[in-house]
């Protein structure tokens, strides 16, 4: 049996904002530039429905704010919303999204020498919590 998932343009925008916003949050928290690049590659390398949505050329990601807090106010709820909308239609794709974002977070956080900074580690925990909310 094949599950057909129907995502509106707004749903797709939420997924992209959540995933790419997580990478932006880590960069704003101090993750190295190389890590952000690696994290973006993780997102564009995703498979399944999530991979198609994240790889699509789009201009619907509008992250605004002058502080990490303002960025987090947009991204963390988008992560929770993305998990909810995927979980309602296909729990497997929700897991795929979660795994993809967490691999991107790990790529961004671990790209420097040694352990991630305390700020980056704290942001990674907040992103994980938003995915699991």
Plain-language structure description:
With 133 residues, the protein is mainly alpha-helical. The protein is built from six helices and no strands. It is globular. The model has no long low-confidence stretch (mean pLDDT 91).
Keywords:
133 residues; mainly alpha; 6 helices; 72% helix; globular
Distance between the termini: 29 Å
Radius of gyration: 14 Å
Helix content: over 70%
Number of helices: 6
Oligomer: single chain
Spatial shape = globular
Mean pLDDT: 91
Uncertain segments: none
- Class inferred from helices and paired strands: mainly alpha
The fraction of residues in strands falls at under 5%
Major beta-sheet overview: none
Task: Give the total of beta strands.
Answer: 0
> How many domain modules?
1
Helix-strand sequence? HHHHHH
Summary of the model, kept short:
With 133 residues, the chain is mainly alpha-helical. It is built from six helices and no strands. The model has no long low-confidence stretch (mean pLDDT 91).
Tell me the layout of helices and strands:
Layout: H1 9-28, H2 33-44, H3 48-55, H4 68-89, H5 91-109, H6 118-132
Helix pairs in contact: 1-2, 1-4, 1-5, 1-6, 2-5, 4-5, 4-6, 5-6
């Amino acid at each position: 049996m094949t599950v057909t998932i129907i995502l509106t343009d707004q749903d797709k925008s939420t997924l992209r904002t959540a995933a790419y916003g997580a990478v932006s949050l880590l960069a704003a928290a101090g993750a190295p530039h190389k890590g952000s690049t690696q994290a973006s590659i993780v997102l564009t390398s995703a498979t399944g429905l999530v991979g198609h949505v994240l790889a699509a050329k789009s201009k619907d990601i509008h992250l605004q704010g002058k502080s990490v807090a303002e960025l987090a106010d947009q991204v963390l709820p988008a992560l929770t919303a993305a998990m909810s909308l995927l979980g309602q239609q296909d729990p497997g794709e929700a897991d795929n999204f979660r795994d993809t974002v967490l691999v991107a977070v790990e790529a961004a956080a671990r790209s420097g020498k040694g352990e991630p900074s305390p700020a980056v580690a704290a942001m990674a925990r907040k992103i994980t919590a938003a995915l699991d909310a």
